[in-house]
């Protein structure tokens, strides 16, 4: 089943609210009008020439290649304006006041770390809602979860992340607008539990010349396609091109490249004057498999913690070993003890070895370290459905880390591993909202 159907739509008024699913209309650059869950949401709208005025006469004059498809004041019935960060083509002082004046009931959602910029660009404080990565809000029919983004780098202030993405869940579908980002450790691990239907990803790439002139870059088209497949999304719309000559992707070149890549997901570049309809699809319950070398120390703890934090959710959880040394054995007594100290009973678990069928029976296989990752990659059959993730990469976005085997060490090492796995399991629970 295709992720989307496409129909012509010359104006936003012709984009109707779907009873189920979502409808999207590209505003140019990273901007979209989204109708979903009974709400009309605008994200990262740049509908002015404020950057051309700001950079007139400079090396990068920011002259438009594409006229705004609609005037800001012509967008009516808007419930929310979402800004992923404070760069002007995402939080535009030439768009915000006009859009809010035309929509007196609309509110603005922005990163907590960008509060001052939002206020300075015309958002009244009484209409401003702030959030940070890992937080979830109900917008009134659509749940939004903020995800970290790295606009060439992850920048975190005392108030939170400067760059965010937003997962939008409503109408039976899940959309993810990544914000401006490049790949970084933990991004795939953060997004995979969301079971994204459609990813909206920037594809204008990056290079040294742009970076040296203060223009941070984004995913390349190849990276965007790889990321889409890595998180298990059904589809991807590439955007953030066609506006400024110094910071774009040629769409003809991009479409030719997409035809060569042959990803598992359905992928395309956004285009003007079209509405993309995304319909819900039936999904089986999320299935998680924790893996370590012997299935007696780390993965039994991970299984127990996932069961605790995902209690009551429609999720299948198990654990297994790469090796066959401990098949039929109970968890290590030190793992049993550290779990029992926190009210979790893992004593009834029995070690087993991973099977070939696990690579299709489970959605996410959660490895503890690089050795596990390599072993799983070698065992995975061609075309396997499961995504193999490094669990430790959830702990500190931007830093790839192993959850070390405590077997040769004492109770303190088991307690440290328990704490790491507890944090990772909580993050997975935050990122899976059925």
UniProtKB/TrEMBL annotation:
Enzyme Commission (EC) number: 3.1.3.48
Active-site residue list: 292, 298, 405
Family per record: Belongs to the low molecular weight phosphotyrosine protein phosphatase family.
Hydrolase recorded as keyword: yes
Positions of the Metallo-beta-lactamase domain: 28-239
Species: Gemmobacter aquatilis
Keywords: Hydrolase, Protein phosphatase
Top-level enzyme category: hydrolase
Protein name stated in the entry: protein-tyrosine-phosphatase
């Amino acid at each position: 089943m295709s992720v989307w159907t496409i129909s012509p739509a010359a104006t936003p008024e012709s984009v109707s609210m779907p009873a189920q699913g979502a409808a999207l209309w590209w505003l140019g650059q990273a901007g979209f009008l989204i109708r979903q869950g009974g709400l009309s949401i605008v994200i990262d709208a740049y509908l002015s020439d404020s950057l051309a005025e700001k950079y007139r006469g400079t090396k990068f004059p920011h002259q438009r290649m594409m006229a705004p498809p609609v005037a800001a004041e012509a967008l009516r019935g808007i419930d929310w304006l979402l800004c992923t960060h404070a760069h002007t083509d995402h939080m535009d002082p030439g768009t915000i006041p006009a859009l809010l004046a035309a929509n007196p009931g609309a509110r603005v959602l922005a990163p907590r770390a960008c509060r001052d910029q939002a206020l300075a660009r015309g958002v009244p404080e009484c209409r401003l809602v702030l959030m940070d990565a890992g937080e979830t809000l109900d917008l009134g029919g659509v749940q939004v979860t903020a995800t970290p983004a790295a606009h060439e780098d992850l920048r975190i202030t005392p108030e939170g992340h400067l760059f965010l993405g937003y997962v939008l869940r409503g109408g039976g579908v899940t959309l993810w607008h990544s914000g401006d980002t490049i790949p970084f450790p933990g991004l795939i691990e953060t997004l995979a539990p969301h079971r994204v239907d459609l990813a909206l990803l920037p594809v204008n790439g990056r290079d040294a010349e742009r970076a040296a002139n203060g223009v941070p870059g984004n995913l390349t088209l190849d990276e965007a396609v790889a990321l889409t497949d890595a998180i298990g999304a059904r589809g991807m719309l590439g955007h953030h091109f066609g506006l400024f000559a110094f910071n774009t992707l040629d769409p003809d070149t991009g479409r030719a490249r997409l035809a060569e890549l042959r990803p598992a997901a359905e992928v395309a570049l956004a285009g003007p004057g079209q509405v993309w309809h995304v319909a819900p699809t039936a999904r089986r319950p999320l299935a998680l498999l924790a893996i370590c070398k012997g299935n007696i120390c780390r993965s039994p703890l991970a299984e127990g913690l996932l069961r605790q934090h995902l209690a009551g959710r429609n999720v299948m959880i198990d654990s297994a070993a790469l090796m066959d040394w401990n098949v039929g054995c109970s968890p290590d007594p030190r793992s049993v003890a550290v779990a029992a100290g926190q009210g979790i009973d893992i004593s009834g678990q029995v070690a087993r070895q991973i099977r070939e069928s696990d690579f299709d029976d489970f959605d996410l296989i959660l490895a503890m370290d690089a050795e596990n990752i390599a072993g799983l990659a070698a065992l995975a059959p061609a075309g396997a459905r499961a995504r193999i993730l490094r669990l430790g990469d959830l702990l500190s976005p931007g830093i790839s880390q192993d959850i070390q085997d405590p077997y040769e060490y004492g109770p303190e090492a088991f307690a440290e591993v328990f704490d790491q796995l507890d944090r990772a399991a909580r993050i997975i629970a935050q990122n899976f909202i059925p």
